[in-house]
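Now for one record.
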Amino acid sequence: MKNRIPYKFNETIWQHSSQGGWYFITLPVDISGEIRENLKWQEEGWGRMRAIAKIGTTEWKTAIWYDSKINSYLLPVKGNVRLKEKLKAGDLIEVEIFV
């Protein structure tokens, strides 16, 4: 990824409790802190920052969202990514993001 900073980590995928809730991966607090400290200027409205994510062999353009209640970014995981990579809530996943 040209001119993007890579971050790699393992985290659990979870589903929001609302009906038909989205699936997310919470970035580690230390990585979120580093991103926020150095790249906050790239955030758009509501703490949104453009990113590229990669899980397994699937890579997609997305955004991470800063959640001030937990001091971390959230990565939404689209349905087509979950299907292709056979992911379900509770799975521990290796994730790579580029911001």
User: Anything to note?
Assistant: The mean pLDDT is 93. The first helix runs from residue 29 to 39. Residues 29 and 47 are 15 Å apart (CA to CA). The two ends are 9 Å apart (CA to CA).
